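WP5 quarterly update. Target: Endoglucanase. Source organism: Streptomyces zingiberis. Length: 765 aa.
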Amino acid sequence: MPPQRGRPHRGRRRLLGAVAVAGLLGTVLSGPAAGAEPGPELVSNGDFSGGTTGWWFTENLPAAVTDGRLCAEVPAGTANPWDAILGQNDIPLTAGEAYTLRYTATATAPVTIRANVQMATDPYTAELNAADRIDATGEEIEHVFTANADNPKAQLAFQIGGSAQAYTFCVDDVSLTGGAEPPVYEPDTGSPVRVNQVGYLTHGVKSGTVVTDATSPLTWTLKDAGGTTRATGRTVPKGTDPTSRQNVHTFDFSKVTRASDGYTVTVGEDTGEPFSIGDSLYDGLRSDALAYFYHNRSGIEIDADLVGEEYARPAGHIGVAPNQGDTDVPCQEGVCDYRLDVSGGWYDAGDHGKYVVNGGISAAQVMANYERTLHVEKAKGEKLGDGKLRVPERGNGVPDILDEARWQLDFLMKMQVPAGEKLAGMAHHKIHDRQWTGLPLLPSDDPQPRELHPPTTAATLNLAATGAQCARLFEPYDEKFAARCLEAAETAWEAAQAHPDILADPDDGVGGGTYADDDVRDEFYWAAAELFVTTGKAAYHDAVFDSPIHGDTDAVFPRGGVGWLATGGLGALTLATVPSDISESELAEVRAMLTEAADGYAADSRKSAYGVPYAPEGNNYVWGSNSSVLNNMIVLGTAHDLTGKAVYRDAVLRGMEYLLGRNPLNQSYVTGYGERDSHNQHHRFWANQLDPSLPNPAPGSVAGGPNVGIEDPVAQDKLKGCAPAMCYIDDIESWATNEITINWNAPLAWVASYLDDLGSGLTKY
Ligand code: 9MR
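Structure tokens (predicted):
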């Protein structure tokens, strides 16, 4: 959930002395007090730029962030102030320290509310219990008080009930400062010995990293589960790793090929997490990473028989109250005057938005996972076949992975502007809630109106590309569906030709992400490539080979990775691997771009003390950096498929070491895999961290990972000044470092398939 835009500060400042309430009150000072030093900010997201994150409200108060303020509809006729509350928990108070509470609020009918700082549980002893008169003026209110008792988890509560008439209460710019500076957040990084916490393929490279002050080589020892030493060697000092600012050494035990579980590596006094050596380490991940898509389907009940009771849930957004449904969705005001049934598809991420740009590349990479099995001699498709995955369509004679892709393809086609309308054939950029919703929230409980946002050229070309790929893959199974995909694709291509520069508004980010992209040359390239491979038509051929980005390796395969902003590589990967009418010299050109990019990623991996095949300019680890790593691994894996060269394969294996624990935080970023796995990712239903009755993310969900931008309140609170590869926290409210999305799990699933084939000895070793 990206932050909303800020608003100008409103209202004059009003100093209020707190009104004492007998028996409840601690020391309350009126006006500015000596000793009320500014101190650290204790309220998180007090300006609501992060939506409702960090705030809670009683069930009788429908509250949402409107125009940058938290607004609640207070019902008529409640008896007591505390019958309707907006609050925030986990506020640390220290006895004897002075604190200052400030906020602005408006009420549509004048009321007296209580602003309390108090115990969060019975007897709710208050350190501040102020009665504040609130009306339409919205002036700033300030109270200063001194805490009587230590309380690491106090509560700030605006008690706004007790009014005979209903009214709207809005609050903003809430700040509570004081006390001593909190201790600086230190991530728990466990052992300094870092390994792939799942394991290493029997005949693959095997390396690890140790964080140490030592400058000369140390001895490492590999022990089996019984404690017997199986190998020893000397570490290689690497100096200071710029991505973590740690002094590190690497070690290599590739020569060990005895398959077993429970190995550990010890350096000096320190032992890393246990791991396996074996051939079938990625079988489960291949399936789990794909199950992610079924779990996140919109418009269908998630069936306990397929995913277990814990993960079962009702269908979301099918028009059953309180949902306003995706079956009959209007446009944002002024955008169109028709309504569309855009039910189905996959939820993008932790939010319930559905975006054609991002949804398109995800469907494409799920299909590419399957398509690879058709053309890579030693890749076998059985494990993706009918009856093999968690999809309700199993047993229908169609490979399960295609059934899953079809759920999204159907949705993508529904997003196309109908014939006869202005911009017919274009695709709407996205559909999502009018306002940001809070966490937790089941899809079926989302009460927000849903809206279609304007069509864009980028979305239209995503539809063209995926529709074309759909047509060739579904042709053997469902000719009619394949024909429908192709028609949608070619119509989209025509519409994009007619409207080549309708861009998404970078400010259209309330209630959903923007996915704004101001360069669509790569989308044209990708769509043309897919259409050419499917149809062989000259127009598409020329659009590929006359494209300004063709031959420009950095544009097609940027160092930071293919992704929703850079889709050209998806087209090049298809041209390089799927048989088509391409000439031999053209094929050589495309493959040269691919291997040049793969050479760069492999070199980055060899250079990195953590083996990661990702080295963005200035170590600028971006939002979703783990997907950049994974997308680079796809390029490497494809280069290995095509050339058989070990350097590419080895860099994929090292990339997986990084993702599964060989990294500066000793973190496995994939839920359910490794001893120290991410399991509190940002998601509205998999929100166990907020509500223990809800599940954690399902196994096989990859977290976005380190992001130097730290654009959420938790990351800003905890991670300021972080080293690039350490800008990550496994907290559900850190959406900028710890979200999960379809476009990150799709490359994970591709890579897991590649590695499983490799381990099974099916691909060249
Ligand atoms: O993955 C997107 C990332 O590249 C952007 O920097 C970020 C901010 O615009 O948005 C990410 O996408 C989010 C989307 O806008 C809404 N759904 C959740 C996505 C993942 O965080």
